[in-house]
Amino acid sequence: MKKTPLLNIALSRLIASLGHGDRVVIADAGLPVPPGVELIDLALTQGIPDFVSTLQVVLSEMQVESHVLAEEILLKQPPALQVIDELTARAALGERKLLSHEAFKTLTRQARAVVRTGECQPYCNIVLVAGVTF
User: Fold this and answer.
1) Which CATH architecture has domain 21-130?
2) Which residues are noted in the entry as substrate-binding (predicted)?
3) Cα separation of 26 and 51, whole Å?
């Protein structure tokens, strides 16, 4: 049995297969998933699992070089933003890039996968760019 917190087989497989620069999206329940992009749907009901818990578990296994947020998250200030800011300050998320929400959705077409959560707060979406551990 695994020693890390991540138990979801599809998500663990995805992270193990990432190369430098690959993108993974952690999304709220409403973000559209582009055709051809793998969907790992964790959503059970509103708020379960939440964005922050999902992000923290993914970070337990994934090396992140940088991340992308929609500019609108800064305007709406959902509770998850405080955690994202704290993780950024601790260098767990690398450098931040901001895009309009429309440009963010376009960027998701380049993702290896979208991980859908049950989060229902607006703009709780992040693109994680894989880094290397060496």
Assistant:
1) 3-Layer(aba) Sandwich (3.40)
2) 28, 101, 123-125
3) 7
Residue type at 23 in one-letter notation: R
From CA 54, how far away is CA 71, in angstroms rounded? 21
Q: What does DSSP say about strands 23-27 and 38-41: parallel, antiparallel, or unpaired?
A: unpaired
Does the annotation flag 123 for ligand binding? Answer: yes
Q: Is 20 a catalytic residue?
A: yes
Q: Judge contact between 34 and 127, C-beta under 8 A.
A: no
Q: Find out whether 101 is annotated in a ligand binding site.
A: yes
Using one digit for the tens of pLDDT, what is the confidence trace for 89-131?
A: 999 999 999 999 999 999 999 999 999 999 999 999 999 999 9
Q: Which residue is catalytic, options 13, 20, 76, 109?
A: 20
Tens digits of per-residue pLDDT, 38-85? 999 999 999 999 999 999 999 999 999 999 999 999 999 999 999 999
